[in-house]
Amino acid sequence: MRILIVEDETKTGDYLRKGLLEAGFQADLARTGVDGLHLALNADYALIVLDVMLPGLDGFSLLQQLRERKQTPVLMLTARDEVADRVRGLELGADDYLIKPFAFAELLARLRTLLRRAPPRVQDRLSIADLSIEVQRRRVTRGEVRIDLTVQDFALLHLLAEREGDVLSRSLIASHVWDMNFESDTNVVDVAIRRLRAKIDDPYPVKLVHTVRGMGYVLEIRA
């Protein structure tokens, strides 16, 4: 499980990273707010430990920008014990708040509580080759071209992309996309696959949706 630490104090940052590694986590360390925001937005973290007082971009501003894109759990750290600061952090979307100095055992216990509480995270951006899917915005592009999909087309593509490389049977696709039991004399899945291919594959030299005879369909890059 991967955790991001955003902390500019060298001793504190190194101490936190060492402790988390010893506790069995993967841990990345950013020492500025700008670097922390870049990592938080472009990598997949289970949780972020965020200091308030940071150079370039403070923790409050980082959190505000993060919440516009992601809901990664955040534990804020600060040496400032004012109630107003804690309220501000929580109102901006922090999940917990810990005042410096703190015992590492307490921080670890709070992290584990947040991780247990956090709902399963849905990856917001999926990509394969030059195909990009922004899940929450329901935006699909191939290269620089925007592709408009119906609700069911998008659900089908999202399912295939989430299970990239896995061969999905017609019955599985039907149950997930249409919430229906697949019957052998029903060609709804094949029709939907043809419609999806016409939009995301036919205009492009590299094909991504493939038929596995007798088994189903798969989304993957093939040589």
TrEMBL record:
Modification sites for 4-aspartylphosphate: 51
GO BP term (any one): regulation of DNA-templated transcription
Cellular component, GO annotation: cytosol; protein-DNA complex
Molecular-function annotations in GO: phosphorelay response regulator activity; transcription cis-regulatory region binding
Chain ranges of the OmpR/PhoB-type domain: 123-221
InterPro entries: CheY-like_superfamily (IPR011006), CusR-like (IPR006291), OmpR/PhoB-type_DNA-bd (IPR001867), Sig_transdc_resp-reg_receiver (IPR001789), WalR-like (IPR039420), WH-like_DNA-bd_sf (IPR036388)
Organism listed in the record: Duganella guangzhouensis
UniProt name for this protein: Heavy metal response regulator transcription factor
Keywords annotated in UniProt: Cadmium, DNA-binding, Phosphoprotein, Transcription, Transcription regulation, Two-component regulatory system
